[in-house]
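Hi everyone,

Forwarding the result from last night's run.
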Amino acid sequence: MTQIQLRPAVPKDVDIVLRWPNDPFISVRSAFQREVEWTERLNWFGETLGSNQRQMLIILLHDQPIGLVQFEFVHDNQCTVSIYLLPEYTGQGHGVAALKIACWKLFGDRPVAGIAALIQKTNSRSISAFQKAGFKSVDQAAVEVPPDHLAFYMERPTEVPHNRLTWGDSEVLGVADVVRSGYWASGPRVAKLETTLAHMANVKSVVCVASGLSALRLLLLGLGIKPGDKVLIPAYSCVALANAVLACGAAPVPVEIAPDDWNIDVRATKDAVYENRPKAIIAVNTFGLPSSVESIQQFEVPVVEDCSHGFGLTVNGVSLGGRSAAAILSFSATKLVGGGQGGAILSSSPAVGKFVESWRDYNDKPPDGKRLNEKMTDLEAALAQCQLNRLAEMIAARYVLAKRYHDLLVEEASHTGSFRLPNISEDRIWYRYAVEMRTASAQSVIDSLGRLGVRTAIPVTDWRSTGMPLCPVSDRAYHGLVSLPLYPTLTQDEQDRVVHAFLAFVREHA
């Protein structure tokens, strides 16, 4: 993307707006194709500023006016667009960028279904610019077009979702094979998935269950967590962690996080261990950043690693999932590895594995309120297996997108200081691209970008209650972190729309 910005025309623009059209380079390509009288142009400009049927935007490059984009509204549902640049700025991609930004803004501001453009057949440069901006040629027989012009049209774009599933023929065929097999419950596909996960994480035991929450609850029970025990969890984390602890009758104790990676803070964990004498610690690899599991294990409390955001990563030669007493995964649809639902417990302790395997099913067991139906189905296992088969390519695609976000946003972040980007690194999984807002709330970003058809999200909802320990860094994260769309199928054009909408918000609130 170029450093193009747009602003509405104002009365002080009268001189340049009236001077530009009579530039020979512009006039020969304009609708008039002649020199326009000053009075005629002056009247037109005054009508434009006061009209709801016409909109003029000045194109800026480094705050210098270099052209304009103009919309004429045929009716509320349709409009036409025209653009011109000063000759010294043509052929450099500025027109394409200006068209994209102007049209995205218009779609956000008004409920038009599409935008039309008429271009002279001999104006090959404009034709190319409109096509690169996303305009499609129109069947000339279907519309009324002057004989020396071509018609182009841009339909209203669909929303850029915050999440989008990554799947292909392999997932479709994998599920179809399970359906045809007649074995839909927990069976051979689950067993195969367990073997695959054990090999990838280099652990002795893997047991697949109904969800990530099920995995965490059963693992805590397997580690001997009883009613009244305390379990340390990151203060900034999904409510599923607290729910799993509470389901065991134990008490979740929130622990402050570190501001550089949003993971559970080692020093705060040390203090919490001393004060609470917990029976377990849950460490999340938040957004795909590896937590300091090795350092936390020095406190001689069993550590459970939540690898749902970072499975597939190796730290110091050890795979995530194999660094601690045990680990869990979630295969919820929008997780790094999606299976619709499902979860897994990874452990190098055969005793833990046998316990979980026994407790994931209540059938033929004595009555016990802690025994539930928590088996994974072969349908979910088939999906998760296909996702694991493409995990390397999905991780690589996520990194490319994260790097591009960084390249497109870092200059503005450094210039304004109004937001902070995550450190760009290959030593992590880019499950989420979470930006910290410093001068505005995450919710205000979400609301503003949503009006432009870009869906962002607060990645984690605050689950803490009154009376729990104060955690100012976690408070910062809950209030200021906003997750931008990041998934392997995010297109470059969609990412450009996200960046444009985000920077428009930042500049408006500077």
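DSSP finds 17 helices and 19 strands in the chain.

Cheers,
N.
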